[in-house]
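Q: What structure does this chain adopt?
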Amino acid sequence: MNTKLPLALLLSMTACKSTATGPATFGDDVAFLRQHVETIVLSDAMGEAQVALVPAYQGRVMTSTADGASGRSHGWVNRELIASRKFADHNNVFGGEDRFWIGPEGGQYSVFFGPGAKFELADWYTPPAIDTEPFDLIEKASDRALFRRRFQLANCSGTKFDVEVTRSIRLRDAKEVLAAMRVELPSGVRGVAFESENTLVNLGRDAWTKERGLLSIWILGMFNASKASTVVVPFEPGPESALGRVVNDEYFGKVPAERLRVLADAGVLLFTADAQCRSKLGVGPKRAKDVLGSWDAENKVLTLVQYSLPRPAGEYVNSLWKLQDEPYGGDVVNSYNDGPSTPGGKGFGNFYELETSSPALALAPGGRATHRHTTVHLVGDERALAGIAERVLGMDLKVINEP
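A:
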């Protein structure tokens, strides 16, 4: 596929629904994907918890379900772009609940902007190795798959990186994942859980240094938005003098006040995730906790993301689109809500994102680092889901549902 789609056309694309009355089922999405690209399905013994992976999209987890082929499909899938069988110029928003990227996105050490580029959309290009080029499938079993790829990157300052990436995706028992969070899976609640273990290796002859730019492992999940979707980000409360600001909400201009609630006493951020306003937030290493999530009050879906957060957390790459005074003063967790990029325009699609990153990686030759990212979707009895949300995210669903 060498044909390119212009950025303006990509920005005008929206997802195609399988029906006019509701979201796609998991079976719908898998059938669609298999018409256009090799798709691997992982499944539990009962065929209820299932996950769909695409090697051509860097071993990406495209979608999942807790209820078999006829169950709700939790990942956002960009059907129009996939069906076009064409690549876009700057970034291919295929969708997917767990995709592998490498940071930083912006700044003098960015791997998305070349030397001399302006930090504007026209100069922003996702490296092909994490956009259009496949990862090799190394091993596969009924509940897991292993992918690997070697490639070279260059950053905005001209530093080159020879890397190897290994991605291990495995279906996990939702009951065991919740138990690790000290929560039981109650009767009346069904779940699907999967984990990606992502390892980055320095294959070059030189050490990666702060002065020449460091990389990070960056995992992003794209989920179907509804009119009542809210992202929930717990944070460590405390004075800014010790922990820094609570939230960075200036990635694409300041998030409108009515779309971001900072509940200081509870230590929780509530971020509107309805795909109607392009906006993004982040939480830094002194504030971040190792879990975040979302609540879809319309469809009664509770989503939890847990990830490997080292303590002390260390430094994180800064992805703001500008030359930076603090290139290692970045965020650990992020959430993005899609929407129009220009007044009266259209966004990429009906999705929001939950994202986590590794620290900045100062790897010696042959050195390696691993970042784990686990996603859980829970559906069923709302009262039982409310109990889980309060225990894990520290937030009552009634408060989340407040306008």
